[in-house]
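Sharing a chain and its predicted structure for anyone who wants a worked example. Both blocks are below, sequence first, tokens second.
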Amino acid sequence: MANIKSAKKRILVSRTKTERNKSIRSSVKTAMKKVFAAIESGDKAAAQTALVSATKLIESAASKGVYHKNNASRKVSRLALAVNKMA
């Protein structure tokens, strides 16, 4: 365990940021699963609405630094491609 005050603070700050990042990543994964579930069920309208909400979450996560911008862009692109491939 750290003895120096600044080191103790860094531990607390990093723990807080880790929990925040984990929460955001989890919500993004859930949103992506909702899009893929709508695609599997064949409901194009539901897939479109889920895609919009997932895109918003992913872009928000990228702006907060949870995901790199290219990673976020790739996720959005793959989701949009999957929705557009629906019959």
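Comments welcome. The radius of gyration is 17 Å.
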